[in-house]
Specification:
Helices cover 39% and strands 16% of the residues. The protein is an alpha/beta fold and 323 residues long. It has a single domain, classed as Metal-dependent hydrolases (TIM Barrel). Helix 2 crosses helix 3, helix 4 crosses helix 5 and helix 5 packs across helix 6.
């Protein structure tokens, strides 16, 4: 039996239950919050925590028992705040280590690493492994998976460096990987290639945001290499309408790929990339409860069975985290 590390401590993989595989609690720019706390919306820690507690309780009330939060460096990871929230909500929160960048590595790594001014082993690998084995900062919370990204700019030197560091940390620890990708540039295939070159087990990789695409050939190519498809942006209808998202999942299920898909929203309680009022008006379904309330009934109407839904929500996450 594999124990999965969560904010509240280890949980047996068999008890993760219904799991949303890509959700954020907060997405924040720490320097912006410290220096411009009123932009784009005023920040009050107590108010935001209370709001997050309410939203996560609504999520849990839909029989969701676990959320997987890939908030890493570059997205504002701060575990003490998440711990305060999780004390008040009976839900498992699984957190990640890694770096989120579309281009360059953070400046702290520009001059330190293999072949650089300070020629050392890749420091990112050591930091990622520490988060997984010992815990994040002094919180006692251990990361359970790794996160990286490859977006429209493609495999820039910085992105490649992070991908390879993530692959190496995965090989050392066995922790699974989630990759933010842009399916319209087929970047999931690039991520698979680079990770495989580092020895990564592609069956332990979620190619995130695959649900933004209806290109079945591309999606099947990812699954045929062993990885999971992150059908994980339900509610972001501005990127792909609801009907097309649901239809793609239903068609892949019909073709026998249900054991290679996981579901989620990529939502958050608060994201400072967008004004809160504008976000709520433009993206009313980009919330934790959309899958439970709207997506699952729509999938059932299209012939997806309850057993297949269980596979995507429960069985696949359990397998992903079972080392």
């Amino acid at each position: 039996m594999t124990d999965v590390q969560t904010v509240r401590g280890p949980v047996p993989a068999e008890r993760l239950g219904n799991t949303l595989m890509h959700e954020h609690v907060f997405v924040l720019g720490a320097e912006m919050r410290q220096n411009y706390p009123d932009f784009p919306d005023p920040w009050d820690d107590d108010v935001r925590i209370a709001d997050a507690v309410d939203k996560l309780r609504q999520c849990a009330s839909r029989d969701i028992t676990t959320i997987v939060d890939p908030t890493v460096i570059g997205l504002g990871r701060y575990l003490p705040r998440i711990q305060r929230i999780n004390e008040r909500v009976d839900i498992n929160i699984i957190v990640a280590t890694g770096i989120y960048t579309y281009n360059e590595v953070p400046l702290q790594f520009h001059h330190t690493g293999p072949g650089l001014l300070f020629d050392t082993p890749e420091p990112m690998v050591e930091l990622f492994v520490r988060d997984i084995r010992k815990g994040i900062a002094d919180t006692g919370v251990r990361a359970a998976f790794l996160k990286c990204a490859i977006e429209e700019p493609g495999l820039t030197p910085g992105v490649e460096r992070v991908l390879r560091a993530v692959g190496q940390a995965h090989v050392e620890t066995g922790a699974p990987i989630t990759v933010h990708t842009n399916p319209h540039t087929r970047s999931g295939l690039v991520a698979q290639r680079v990770l495989a070159e580092e020895g990564a087990d592609l069956t332990k990789v979620v190619i995130g945001h695959s649900g933004d695409s209806t290109d079945l050939d591309y999606l099947r190519e990812i699954t045929d290499a062993g990885s999971y498809l992150g059908m994980d942006r339900f509610g972001l209808d501005v990127l792909l309408p609801f009907e097309q998202r649901v239809g793609t999942v239903a068609e892949l299920a019909r073709r026998g790929y249900v054991d290679r898909m996981v579901l989620s929203h990529d939502a958050s309680c608060f994201i400072d990339w967008l004004p809160a009022a504008g976000k709520a008006a433009a993206l009313p379904n980009w919330i934790y409860t959309h899958i439970s309330d709207d997506v699952l009934p729509a999938l059932r109407e299209r012939g997806v069975t309850d057993a297949q839904i269980t596979t995507m929500l429960t069985d696949n996450p359990r397998r992903y985290f079972s080392m």
